[in-house]
Amino acid sequence: MWMDDVDIDGVSGVLHDAMTGEPNVKLDPRVVAQNREARNAALQRQQQVEQAGVMSEVNANNAHAAQAETLARGRKAS
């Protein structure tokens, strides 16, 4: 995100009293790094969940296809 290193409270102070001294509106770089790492980890988890869902659907479709084939062979044999 383009503003993930900005302290919103600090920005509010600047907007409230723009003519005073320059406040520090940047977050600590360590906090920014932690926030980015947490966001990336959450994104990876979400992607893994989505991928697992796709794989589950593929497996279910394959199982249904195999079951349908078995049933069709049984009907032909009868």
Please give the structural blueprint.
Elements: H1 8-16, H2 29-77
Give an overview of the whole structure.
This protein is mostly helical and 78 residues long. Helices cover 74% and strands 0% of the residues. The chain contains two helices and no strands. The protein has helices at residues 8-16, 29-77. The N and C termini lie far apart (64 Å). The mean pLDDT is 82.
- N→C terminal distance: 64 Å
Helical residues, percent: over 70%
Overall strand count = 0
Mean pLDDT: 82
Contiguous runs where pLDDT drops below 50 for at least 5 residues: none
Describe the largest sheet: none
Strand content: under 5%
The helix/strand series, from N terminus to C terminus, equals HH
Helix vs. strand class = mainly alpha
The helix tally amounts to 2
Outline: rod-shaped
Radius of gyration based on Cα positions? 27 Å
